[in-house]
Amino acid sequence: MDTLYKRITPERLKELLDRFYAKVFFDSTISHLFAEDQLPVIKEKQFMFLSQFLGGPQLYSQEYGHPKMKLRHLPHAITEEAKDEWLRCMRVAIDSMDFEDGLGDALYNCFPQVASHMVNR
Description:
With about 120 residues, the chain is mostly helical. The protein has one domain (about 10-120): Orthogonal Bundle (Globin-like), CATH 1.10.490.10. Helix content is about 65%, strand content about 0%. The chain contains eight helices and no strands. The chain has helices at about 5-10, 10-25, 40-55, 60-65, 70-75, 80-95, 105-110, 110-120. α2 (about 10-25) packs across α3 (about 40-55), α2 (about 10-25) crosses α6 and α6 (about 80-95) runs antiparallel to α8 (about 110-120).
């Protein structure tokens, strides 16, 4: 069985992240959590993390070590409202893409539990 990473493809994952961050950086609820001058770095780290999270190569771990996502997000005030808005932006980005039946939902369903784990305020 193919992983989500293989089904989505690296190119489409990058396109998804372009669409996602185009929303995030203009969202009044969560844009303050992301340094605009760091956009290329943020997108690359997210691509590396999602690649391995979705069953692809261990790009993030090879470059930065174990993800330790909760620890890495502690400096940022992530509220329930911010989590919900992050998930909304991701859902909109996924829905804006032409994924085959069920793939968009399968991808989105990977995020709510992880996003809830990041809430720290």
